[in-house]
Amino acid sequence: MFSNTEIGIDLGTANVLVYTKNKGIILNEPSVVAVNTKTNQVLAVGAEAKSMIGKTPGNIVAVRPLRDGVIADFDITSQLLKEIMKKAGKTIGFALRKPDVVVCTPSGATSVERRAIHDAVKACGAKNVHLIEEPVAAAIGADLPVEEPVANVIVDIGGGTTEVAIISYGGVVTSNTVRVGGDLLDDNIIQHVRKNYNLLIGERTAEQIKIEIGYALIEHQEKKMDVRGRDLVTGLPQTVTLSSLEIQNALKESLLHILEAIRATLENSPAELSGDIVDRGVVLTGGSSLLNGFQEWLSKEIIVPVHIAPNPLESVAIGTGRSLKFINKLQKAAT
């Protein structure tokens, strides 16, 4: 029972999710680590560390060790993984004894970055570590028939990157990765508010604005929202009212980048698979695919059906765990 534990890890820029065969998603924590800069000691990980962002004394920083879907700080990522594995062990009810682990990697990751992810997980006590490409994991998690020779188009909009891939017969036929994701959309909002209102807002506030009044490029009933931040002129707290139309405008450029990546991938599709795409359409996964009006806007632009996966936030983690069933077949397709 102990040696045969199988877990899937979605090592995302914004969140780390852990999936087990018997219990489904057992852990969903933000990819944030709070570190004491004087002693290099890790003080908190996950939700606890995220609540500290922008609210800590000078010697404690809340950092995200994963940027654009890849490891930016190896040591801190190792610490994050150790804590995640510990928490997962407690949730399952026993210490994880040498589990088999499947971790997803961005399809644009270099061999060095893949090795870093492999080594970080291995260092946490995993028996075997398999790597699977993120779009393939997302497609499996979205219940697409990845083993069959039909076109499955997946658009995975994560925290750091958007990955667009056409998957057929267990492998990626063509793919594109752009470094546009939820984080960049938040940053667009921060810069817009700073430039137009001389107001400084934090990442969490920007994310709240995106969720409540962020819209893809569609016509909609205007919404308004009061936002608090620090006035850059006086240095005092200040409240301003933002409109969904100006936020839509602030997000426009980034959304067009995503559209460009989708179009480029579809243009590179083999002729035989293009027919499948017209019938089957495109499936959206990842948290940012839930942006208001995104599905409607995309289907107008690319003129094929656009579907949202059953659990867009968890698709990659679910697919990572499920992929153990046919990991050998997938690896054969990849080699």
TrEMBL record:
Top-rank lineage group of the source organism: Bacteria
Any GO BP: regulation of cell shape
Keyword annotations of the record: ATP-binding, Cell shape, Cytoplasm, Nucleotide-binding
Coiled-coil annotated spans: none
A GO MF term: ATP binding
UniProt-listed Pfam families: MreB_Mbl
Keyword Repeat part of the UniProt annotation: no
Binding site for ATP: T13, A14, N15, G159, G160, T161, E207, Q208, I209, K210, G287, S288, S289, L290
Compartments where found: Cytoplasm
GO CC annotation: cytoplasm
UniProt keyword Membrane, yes or no: no
Quaternary state and interactors: Forms polymers.
Function: Forms membrane-associated dynamic filaments that are essential for cell shape determination. Acts by regulating cell wall synthesis and cell elongation, and thus cell shape. A feedback loop between cell geometry and MreB localization may maintain elongated cell shape by targeting cell wall growth to regions of negative cell wall curvature.
Record-stated family: Belongs to the FtsA/MreB family.
PANTHER family the UniProt entry points to: CELL SHAPE-DETERMINING PROTEIN MREB
NCBIfam families, A to Z: mreB, PRK13927.1, PRK13929.1
Official protein name in the record: Cell shape-determining protein MreB
